Amino acid sequence: MLKQMNGPLLKTKFQPASEVSSPEDQAAAVSRRKTALTSSRFADAAFRYLMLGCALSVLAIVVLIVRELVLSSALSRNAFGLKFFFRQAWDPVNGDFGALPFIYGTLVSALLALFLAVPLSVGVATFTTELCPRKLRSLLSYMVELLAAIPSVIYGLWGIFVLVPILRLYVEPFLAKYFGWTGLFGGPQFGLGMLGAGVILAIMIIPVITSITREVMSAVPTQQREGVLALGSTRWEMIRVGVLRNARTGILGAIILGLGRALGETMAVTMLIGNRPEIAKSLFAPGYTLASVIANEFSEAADDLHRSALVEIGLALFLITLLVNIVAQLMVWSITRGSAARATA
Amino acid sequence: MIQSKYWWRSLQDKVIVGLAAGATFVVLAPLAAIFGYLVYKGVGSLSWNFLTQIPKPTGETGGGMANAIVGSGLILLIASLIGVPMGIGTGIYLAEFGKKRFGNLVRFTADVLNGVPSIVIGIVAYALVVVTQKRFSALAGGVALGIMMVPIISRSTEEMLLMVPQSLREAAWGLGIPQWRTTLSITLRTASSGIITAVMLSFARVAGESAPLMFTAFGNSYWNFNINQATAALPLQIFYYATSPFDDERRQAWAGAFILILLIVVSMSLVRMVASRGVFKGGN
Questions:
Q1: pTM of the model
Q2: How far is A157 from chain B (nearest CA, A)?
Q3: How far off is chain A from B213, nearest CA to CA, in Å?
């Protein structure tokens, strides 16, 4: 490798002074070497500052995001104040805005997704790290990764034409018949609604939770497993005592990262949730989320107050996901000791 | 638990193993369903016209998404020009210089940026570029997607650079090679396959994004090669057609989705090939 590395540079600039014969040549060589050193010192510094500039730009981007969101939402913040987040009104024609239905829709759809995704994800992670034959391991994790690579809009497309009919014809009548008494499954069965959004979100966040849970479980030292097995435990007891108990903070972090992902997800939810700013008890009823109201209305918002209200919703979304991600990141870091938790790849 | 009867423990074990395997099956089922349905619908809907023509007026049959495919390419090119150098530069900083507190701050900020919902980044690109230019443009879309690429690339680049053995760097310094040269020609080259993987993964991730493009690139029914004009993009066009009442437009949505997923799967497979060839094996 080093041989390919620019031989000429080494020969000319770093010739040892002793090989040069006459004193003049020697002096020249010394001064050449000095300039080479200073120029490389300069180049080193320049390189370092260039890379520092790149790193600073990451900070700058986040500062810029906050600044733009705060500035552009000023109109709405002044008009409605903090009450904005507790009002149900959403009337662009009369300029009356409140974010409560969207906050409700975002939280309910995300929690529903977690409820469905968490047991499955932990199951898959357990199976792929602890139980399945070694040969299957990389194939299975590749397939789960593939699930993460499908774009949101394709999930939405599939959701509209495949998932929604299934929900409407089979799942919702079933739920209404056997669990109707809870009050969560009443009313007309459209297929489009909170339930559909929750299911598609669950499918979308499973790969996120699974891959980080796998990472965290793999970080548990093998001695832990061997120690428990040596006490005569079954595999499940080994997993429960030796692995899950050690990895629980990290797994909780993975779940919260999944939550952060579900809260900010836009396209698939917009296509499936039904887009009606209402707070309904039934999960069959249409809802609306923070992200999807921005997606639907931002480019068409005619007056400044409407646009400003949408930016304030964006600000709220940013702050919520920021908080959730910071908590999750700290938890995952505490297990994997600072190596990148790849939430997205 | 350990004291209880063996048959009970063994049964419990079997049930849990069964449940875990079952969960894996349940999770992979939608994957198979989505891919199967996509191929079934997509291949049937693909046609030469789809790949070569621009959309017909709403409601008319025929036409295609050629302009959206080219538009996506244009937007992704701009995004890569912004995101790749910045991401790799940040990664180099973190791996080579960022051992201290400031490095941790940057690392943390990159992770935060990674978690920002794409639609919020769309709003920011709108405020920064569209408002300044006073029109929707491919440039604005590229800026939004470029911002999204930075944290993905930088964190993986850092990870890859840290895997390069310290002795390689020391050998280079020992030969009197300046640090910048060592980083660029030795460390970065050794880690190149991993970094290419990271770039391709980030590319695959943003290629399917439509939320931040809705009010930046906006979409366009005609050809556009000007980065200062509104531009069609494949994911955006799929979204508009998926919610359309016309059968022919829905058919095209499926065809578009098929092309998009093909693009993503091909780049993911390339990644796996590059990664499995393993530059780390020989060091060169």
A1: 0.86
A2: 6
A3: 10
